Amino acid sequence: MTDSDVRANPDNFCYRHPQRQSFVLCQRCLRTICPECQTPLPVGVICPECLADQRKAASANVSRMPRRRAAGLDGKPVVTYTLVIVTSVFYLIGLMPGIGLYVQNLLAFYAPLAYTQPWRLLTVTLVHASPFHIAFNMLALWALGRSLEPLLGRWRFLTLYLLSALGGSVLTALIAPGSVVVGASGAVWGLLGAMFVIGRHLGANVTAIAVLLGINLVITFLPGSNIAWQAHIGGGLVGALIGVVFARTRKISQQRTQIWLLVAVGVSLLALLAIPLYIYA
Predict the structure, then answer these.
(1) Among residues 13, 32, 63, which one ends one of the domains?
(2) Predicted confidence band at 74 (pLDDT cuts at 50, 70, 90)?
(3) Are 145 and 77 in contact (CB under 8 A)?
(4) What is the pLDDT of residues 198-245, one digit of tens each?
(5) Model confidence pLDDT, tens digit, residues 252-264
(6) Which DSSP letter does residue 126 get?
(7) Residues 28 and 54 in one domain
(8) Which domain does 236 fall in, by range?
(9) Nearby residues of 221 by Cβ (< 8 Å), 6 or more positions away
(10) Alpha helices, H only, the chain
C-alpha cells in the first residue's frame, strides 16, 4: 500500500477531525481517533462519544440507589428507633396522673376483652410495668434491631415485630386467658428467635444468641419472677417461624410467596383465638 493509498482512505483519519491522520481505534466503537480525542482507560482508549455513553450509564446506576433506601436497605434502623421512641412516649404518658391509668387499662392485653377490643393484641407492647421493665425491653430492641433491620429491610422487620407480639398475645389467650399482660417482651423474643434461625441458615456463629435465649428462658421461669412466660414463648416461636420463612424465600422470584406465607401466619394466629371461646366458654 502506498502513501497515497493511506491518505485516500478516510478510515485512517480521526472521525471527529478528518484532517488529522491517526491509526488508533476507539476500543468500543472501533472508529479512528486522534490524540486529542483519546481518553485512556485500563483496556485502551475510547472516543468522546463512547466516554459520554459510559458516564451516562454510570449515572443511571447511581439513580437507582434511592429505591434501596425506600425499601429500607440503606443500613439505618429507622423502624427500630421509631419503636423505641413511641414505646417510651407511651410509658411516660402512663405515668401521668389521671390519664396514665386510663391509657394503661386501654392498651394492656386481657384475653376476654381482646375479642371486642382487638388492638390490645398489639398495643400490649406499649405498656410496661416499671422503669426496669421498659429499659430492659427497649435496650434489647435497640441492640437486636440495629443488626436485624438492615438485614431484613424495614417492612419485613416491622412485620416480624408485630407478628411476634401477636404470637405472644395468642399463646397467652390460649394458656392463661385470665392474665393481664403488659410489655414488648413477646415481640423482643420474636426478634431473638428470628435472628437465631436466620443466623444458622447463613452459617453465622449464633452461640451468643443461643446463650442469651437460654439466660432469658431461665429468668422467665424463676419462681416469683411474675413474668408472662406465655408471651415470651409465643413470641419466640412465631419469630423463629418467620425466620424460617425469610431464610427460605430470599430470592426476588419468591417475594410473592414470602408475602403470602406471612399473611398465612397472621391469619392462623387470629384463627387460634377462636379456641378459648370453646374451651373457656
Answers:
(1) 63
(2) low
(3) yes
(4) 988 877 777 888 888 888 777 777 766 677 889 999 999 999 999 999
(5) 888 999 999 999 9
(6) G
(7) yes
(8) 76-279
(9) 229
(10) 3-8, 48-63, 65-70, 78-94, 99-107, 111-114, 120-123, 131-152, 154-175, 185-202, 207-220, 229-248, 255-272, 274-279
In degrees, rounded to 5, the angle at the alpha carbon of residue 16 between the alpha carbons of residues 12 and 18 is: 45
- pTM across the whole model: 0.72
Cα–Cα dist 38/231, whole Å = 69
Q: Distance (Å, rounded) from C-alpha 124 to C-alpha 161?
A: 12
Q: Are residues 107 and 208 in the same domain?
A: yes
70 within domain boundaries: no
Name residue, grid cell 394492656: 108
Residue type, 252: I
138 and 57 in a single domain? The answer is no
131 with 253, same domain? yes
Residues 196 and 263 in one domain: yes
**CB within 8 A of 17, min separation 6: which ones?**
34, 36, 37
